[in-house]
Amino acid sequence: MSFKIVEEAPARLNRSELAVPGSSPQMFEKAAKSAADIVFLDLEDAVAPDKKEEARRNVIAALNDIDWGDKTVSVRINGLDTPYMYRDVVDVLEQTGDRLDLIMIPKVGTAADVYAVDMLVSQVEQAKGRKKRVGFELIIETALGMQNVHEIAAASRRNESLHFGVADYAASIRARTVRIGGVHPDYGVLADPDEKGERDYFWADPWHYAIARMVVAARANGLRPVDGPFGDIRDPDGYRAAARRAAVLGCEGKWAIHPFQIELANEIFTPSEAEVERARRILQAMEQAEREGRGAVSLDGRLIDIASIRQARTLVAKADRIAAKAG
Ligand code: GLV
Ligand code: MG
Question: Which of 129, 139, 198, 217 is 20 to 30 A from 2 via CA?
Answer without folding.
Answer: 139
